[in-house]
Amino acid sequence: MATLRLGDVVPDFEAVTTEGPIKFHEWLGDSWGILFSHPKNFTPVCTTELGQASHLKPEFDARGVKLLGLSVDAIDNHPAWVGDIKDATGATLNFPLIADSDRKVSDLYDLIHPNANDTLTVRSVFIIGPDKKLKLSLTYPASTGRNFAEILRVVDSLQLTAKHSVATPVDWKNGDDVIIVPSLSDDAAKEKFPGGWTTVKPYLRVVRQPGA
Ligand code: BEZ
């Protein structure tokens, strides 16, 4: 297992999931993707996360992002947990969940951190672009549930900055003003942003979000 860094093509794999076997790269196709790990089935924090991710699936769909969860339990263990997720959160799991009982994917993506726990995975999130390259990774401990609104916010930033010569400032939300990337000269910026911008510092030029 090599360290996975931003910009790397993410490792491909075959896995058993609640929606049948998948070949990861083929399953991604030309879409954006999010792979996120869960320490174990029938655990409380994971249950809330999978419910919330399912509630938010229409938002991910609208952005062309496919969701793929992972848990290290065996596939015959998943359906009862899916039932519990429905009972506890009201959400029917609506994306595939990998049963990584042989830890193949967990090893490929370095999801077991033995100094934290040698059997449970950490809570990682990998956002993958249509080019299969890693755009973001984050890792939380098992005891802290992730914030899926933040994950959507990052997707918005990544999709915007992939298309336009902008970056997004602190606490940015879709529709807020953005920053013109420093590598774009003022002359080049005039062509891309004919409506003009505000120069706070020569390296900090604030402009209306393109398309907003
Ligand atoms: C949980 O998902 O609730 C959890 C899993 C492992 C350790 C602590 C909490």
UniProtKB/TrEMBL annotation:
It comes from Xanthobacter aminoxidans. The keyword Oxidoreductase applies. The keyword Cytoplasm does not apply. It holds the Pfam family 1-cysPrx_C. This is Peroxiredoxin. SUPFAM superfamilies: Thioredoxin-like. Belongs to the peroxiredoxin family. AhpC/Prx1 subfamily. Belongs to the peroxiredoxin family. Prx6 subfamily. Keywords: Antioxidant, Oxidoreductase, Peroxidase, Redox-active center. Transmembrane segments: none annotated.
